[in-house]
Amino acid sequence: MEKNISRRDFLKVTGAGAVAAATAVACSNDKTKTSPTIVGAKSGEGKMEMRKNEHNGDNVSLLGYGCMRWPMIKDENGKDIIDQAKVNEMVDYAMAHGVNYYDTSPAYLQGQSEKATGIALSRYDRKSFYIATKLSNFGDASEKGSIKMYHDSFDEMQTDYFDYYLLHSIGSGGLPAFSKRYVDNGMMDFVMGEREKGKIRQMGFSFHGNQNEFDQLIALHDKYHWDFVQIQMNYVDWRHASGNNTNAEYLYEKLDSLGIPITVMEPLQGGRLSRVPEIVAQQFKERNPDASVGSWAFRFVGSHPRILTTLSGMTYMEHLVDNVNTFTDFQYMNDEELVFIEKMAVLIKEFPTVDCNDCKYCMPCPYGINIPDIFRYYNTMVNEGAAPQSQDQENYRKLRRDYLTKYNKAIPTLRQADHCIGCRQCESHCPQSIRIPNELQRIDAYIEKLKQGTL
What we know:
By secondary structure, the protein is α/β, with parallel strands linked by helices. It has helices spanning 84-96, 113-121, 143-157, 174-183, 187-197, 211-218, 221-224, 248-258, 278-287, 293-302, 317-327, 335-348, 371-383, 396-410, 436-452, and strands at 37-38, 50-52, 59-61, 63-66, 72-74, 80-82, 101-103, 130-135, 162-171, 200-208, 228-232, 262-265, 307-312. The chain has an eight-stranded parallel β-barrel, surrounded by seven helices. A three-stranded antiparallel β-sheet has the order 1-2-3, with no helix packed on it. Strand 7, helix 2 (113-121) and strand 8 (130-135) form a beta-alpha-beta unit. 42% of the residues are buried. The model is unreliable at 1-34 and 40-44 (pLDDT under 50).
């Protein structure tokens, strides 16, 4: 559905009438002999669901900790820094409840994530958890710079080996971009050599890109032997991936056919699938009043047997607790639930929101615009039905006043969408291939109409 729909159609979404009939079941129940063995506790034992990596015997928690969204505080100079005490507390809870896979990167949280994660995990026996980090050489792909980043990760993480090591966010740009970052500079030979030495136990990559780019990378499997691959997978991206991304259904089936374990990023689309439109949330709650909206997304991903772990960037303790509860005595989706959740995916795609996953790769903006917060505010108001549609609405004046007042409180004036000059420096960093200036201009035009009373 086009994002620039008419105001008559804006948010004109109703229940069953908005959704086409679901087609095939979202995933197959067939488990190939090379699938990760499902070794979780039986219902009632209260244990974390685990998956065994048949390649090396690792017993990995189906819930993994994505360390891209650690809680932040201000230091004495007003700089955003990671709240180490909170990180330690959340890692303690995760470890106590069976979460043993921690995924980070030198690029996360302005370079602070690896160190904070390393401090928290260093208090535990190294054999009790798995570390995944990445060669995030976006800015400096030289051999010297890449090797330095690799060795720095050991120091930051306080370890002498990595369990899972990823070439970070490859796909976009195809083989030329892959070669520039990893082949021409000798880094593929270097990384494979480190794997031979045991410094890297499993080597893979995280993928963002189109189907042809994925096929090109997978064709290199015989040469490089990908031990695992990390993909963006959730019940919306399963068949309705946006931008330059590939439907997760295709990625999953391709990797499954090759017997390659899969780790999953963005099971909640950066939290968007825990903040779905009201009409979708109501249908989830009608089916299971006690389950959180987000738990449906996690159950969808975890119900696929090839998945080794599902990463969640948990910032707050309540999110961690809820996710642990979901993966404890894990409930696999049945065929009817898979058909239902595909209907919800179609319904979600009817809403004119921005497909932003809040990864913050677009930041910092050179002109100070708070891109992720602008998109988050707009998406929230649309999903909650709080975005004015037209002056014909009965409660238009109140909606208009509330929208503008809350927008000014949520986003400081100098960081709002109207300050975008369209330089497009942000676009190349966006893994969702969002045309960011276009979306900012669309939102700004909408806000300007509200201000002028011309909607």
